[in-house]
Each structure stands twice: as C-alpha cells, then as structure tokens.
Recover the amino acids of this structure.
C-alpha cells in the first residue's frame, strides 16, 4: 500500500497533500465500483460532485432503500460516518467495504471535495 501511495503522490503534485493521498486511496479502494466521470457504473454511483450533493441523488444509479431513506447531503460528517461504517450509517445499503483508518477516510474525503 505504501508503494502505491508513494507512486501516486509522485504523479499528482497539483493536489494538496490530503487530496493526493485520497486520490491514491480512491484508486486502490473505491475505483473498482465507483467512477469519477459523472456517469454511474453498475457497482456504485459516480463520485464526481458528491460533496454537497443530496444523499442518494447521483443520476443514473439505482440506490438501495437504506440510502434512499437518508436525509441530508454528503458533507465531511456524513461521508466520515458512511465510510467508517456503511451499514450502520444506512442499514440496507449495498456498500460492503468500509475504510477502517480515520486518516484514510479524511484523505479520501479531501479528494472527493476536488471532484467538481
């Protein structure tokens, strides 16, 4: 993981350090299900523009009842809670992977904030 993170950091010097780390972590942990193109995939919604967006509102994705039932928007606090424990945040969600390390969650959220 450190090698992947170091290589990604070397290639992404335009982003702040937290966002750089987050981009590498996104590529390692999130990219298999989520896109950043604005077009949702079969595995998960696009994360482009996710920060500040209403929960369960990405176009072109069929959200679970667990997420459809959540009010609010994706913020630092809601993303932190969801990434830490998806099933606790939204019982019935189909997201199965959690991000165990607080530093990793912070970095991923920092990167998501850059995806306008």
């Amino acid at each position: 993981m450190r090698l992947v993170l170091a290589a990604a950091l070397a290639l992404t010097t335009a982003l702040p350090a937290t966002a750089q780390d987050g981009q590498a972590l996104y590529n390692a942990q999130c990219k298999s299900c989520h896109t950043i193109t604005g077009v949702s995939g079969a595995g998960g919604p696009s994360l482009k523009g996710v920060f500040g967006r209403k929960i369960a509102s990405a176009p072109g994705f069929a959200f679970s009842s667990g997420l459809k039932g959540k009010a609010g928007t994706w913020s630092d606090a809601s993303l932190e809670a969801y990434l830490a424990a998806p099933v606790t945040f939204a019982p019935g969600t189909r997201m199965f992977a959690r991000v165990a390390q607080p530093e990793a969650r912070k970095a991923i959220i920092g990167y998501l904030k850059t995806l306008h």
